[in-house]
Amino acid sequence: MTPFTQSSSDRYTINNVSYTNSIKGFTLIELMIALILGLLISAAALQIFYTSSVNSRRQQASSDIQDNAIFGFSQIQRHLRRANFGARSTATNDKFFLNHETPQGGVVLTAPAGTSGNWLEDNLSGLVLSGNAISADLLTRNASSTSISNIAGAANTNSDQLTIQYQVGQAGLFDCEGDSIPNNFYVIERYFVRLDTTMTPNMAGLACASAIYDYNEALASSPTGIDIATYQHPTDGAKTNNLAGTGTIIIPNVDFFRARLGLADSRDYATFPDRANSAYISIPSASDMATSIGANRIVKLQVGILARSNSPTITEQDNSSLRFTVLDKSNVALNSATTNDRTFLRNVYEGTILLRNARGGL
Fold this sequence. Notes:
Elements: E1 5-6, E2 11-14, E3 17-20, H1 28-80, E4 127-128, E5 162-167, E6 173-174, E7 180-181, E8 186-196, E9 203-213, H2 217-220, E10 226-227, E11 230-233, E12 237-240, E13 248-252, E14 254-264, E15 278-282, H3 289-293, E16 297-308, E17 324-326, E18 329-332, H4 336-339, E19 346-354
Parallel strand pairs: 4-10
Antiparallel strand pairs: 1-2, 2-3, 5-8, 6-7, 8-9, 9-13, 11-12, 14-15, 14-16, 16-19, 17-18
């Protein structure tokens, strides 16, 4: 048997058979082609990942708005439909005729000034707060100083404030802050936009502050009136109200809140609703209340919000180019602070609510 031998020229001989050791590798062109193909595959994978990530964030943002705005907005509308239940009549109109003077009326536009100790006048007839006249800052107002917004403009950039009241005709109902309302008691609810301090950073949200009271004609007509700072719950004892407080955030991430009054000039709206001339107006100022509403009755409400998602999303459109229409407010732009913030998914939600107890009577 011939042993294994190797020559210096990388030639091998095994059993008298010669083999040449041939070592081959990739050429430069082959390496470049492989590198390009790898980059193309990686780019495609990254594009798929990026697209999937963007879609996922948009879906999450859309889910945020639906969870927050749609649910909260439907709850508000449910409460607004109760407005005017329990309203009281005047010498001029019956209890179904709702305007800016209706005692215990549904849309709270006016409050008694308490001249000479007389509290029996206007929507909040007979009521005081901590022994004093109820501040106009707690009433329904257009572009209220107590209701912030994230929109831009030269004037009237604040959100509206909508204050309603109604009487509860059954047990087991709760106000907008989650407090139980005793049967036959009244509740006042004030809807406005404020900063949500439970979030970091603080973001604007739609809040509601409320007050529950038991109407007593004798006490209402007394020099002291009915003080709504506290009330006596039939089973739970003394309770404290929060009408002038910060309230509870019911819809987080709200950039703007708008409300309008639906008026009708018909005295027999329930019998001939087709004959009623109706129109929507912005909430009138205190000095223009009698002129704007006059002999008309409030039969409907329109409310709208500009809501945004909890988490930012990716969009090709800058905040500075966004424009919205909220009820009668068209071409609404975001203010500078919001424009310079991250991009969020935003949507407008609107609703029209017919006040169920405002159509009857004459």
